[in-house]
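Most newcomers find our protein records easier to grasp once they have seen one. A record pairs a protein's sequence with a compact description of its fold. An example says more than a description, so a record of this kind follows:
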Amino acid sequence: MTRSFLRFWLVTVAAVAGIAITASLGRWQLSRASQKEALQAAIDTQRKAPALSARDLEPRADLVPLLHRPVVLRGTWIAQHTVFLDNRQMYGRPGFYVLTPLLLEGADRAVVVQRGWVPRNFVDRTQLPEIATPQGLVEITGRIANAPPHLLELGGSDAKGTEGKGASRIRQNLDLAAFRSETGLALADGSVLQTGAGSEGLLRDWPEVGTGVEKHYGYAFQWFGLCALIAFLYVWFQFIAPRRRQRPTT
């Protein structure tokens, strides 16, 4: 077996393996894109559904099955349990997400409402911004959401004031189970993201919910492109280039 013959088959095996792997990864990314499109369609369907009321939410301990559904709620703010989640951004500026429990009208259950965003005081980082919290019965519009995403914390939760009795109103994260124990409120799992024009000193330009399907199409294009490049280079260097070198010169 000559060296050139052995090299030809080694290159062929490597090329076939590379083509198979990259084509498989490209198909997998297309499959992920299809799944994300189905998820986005489900989200869009939820957001177009009729708005829920406090009566719809009152018997529910878990709001997660209703994610993205619009709501119109009447209730009373429990202002003493307002918390400020630190290091949250809007318009590229750091500040606080302001969260306040809302006791639903005619019910014993409350929901945590993500009311909006405010900038923080960088001169005195312990100073809380002034937030107007109306007393009495209020009506808000919004949509069902998960609790705010957790950010990385350094050190224990007690040191950061995220849990426990007497915890700071400025927190890095909010754990609903711990907050339920801290406040003694019958809080539903999940939250409500208040929407509409900014008010009460708060901004509500929340990021749009998206599944990132474009990312998977981009990755698929890259994998299929690499697959085509491997195939082209294999054919060129294994067949076309040798024949060009063997052509007689005139």
The radius of gyration is 28 Å. The chain has two domains: 3-44+212-246, 69-194. The longest helix spans residues 3-47.
